Amino acid sequence: RLHGARGEDEKAIELLRSSLEEVPNLPAAANDLAFALAQRGEALQEATELAQEARASRPESSEIADTLGWVHYKQGAYPAAEALLREAVEKLFTNLEVLYYLGMAQAKVGRNEEARAALAKSLELSANHAGAAEARATLASLPPLEKLDLRWVATLTPPDWFKDLKKRGYLVYR
């Protein structure tokens, strides 16, 4: 994702397509191309096929689960996205992008407590990440919490971080 990280999406997509033409069974290249296409909102069916091929080759890969989850999110298949992103975050629990994607998917399926925790954690890791504005807007749109299930959050974050949620305004009780 080197070129994509620099904002050179076209070049990254071109290089990944070229790599896959030369060597068709490269799960990493298929995954990265699927992600690049999903980020641009382009060729989502192709992105799904690429991510599914990569997942079939490396079913244990959290990175591929993350990509396939994000592709599903971009297609509006929120329950499938949330399940895959939840799987990915189990190993990539400090990856702010995965936390952001998971929080967005959870918000779409009504898992508001978990969405709030994942989005807040992504902002805690970097207040200015690429999805930060959307994460803040989604947090603001979530209904106030009636109760908070700490069991899920405890698997995601150290206890000290959770104490800061209320102080930072991410937890609102009625």
Keywords:
mainly alpha; disordered N terminus; 174 residues
The number of helical runs is: 11
Low-confidence stretches: 1-6
The whole-number mean of residue pLDDT values reads: 85
Helix content: over 70%
Structure notes:
The protein has 174 residues and is mainly α. The protein has helices at residues 2-5, 9-22, 27-40, 44-57, 62-75, 78-91, 96-108, 112-125, 132-141, 150-156, 159-167. The longest helix has 14 residues, at 9-22.
Q: Can you summarize this structure?
A:
The chain has 174 residues and is mostly helical. Helix content is 73%, strand content 0%.
Secondary structure topology:
Elements: H1 2-5, H2 9-22, H3 27-40, H4 44-57, H5 62-75, H6 78-91, H7 96-108, H8 112-125, H9 132-141, H10 150-156, H11 159-167
Helix pairs in contact: 2-3, 3-4, 3-5, 4-5, 5-6, 5-7, 6-7, 7-8, 8-9
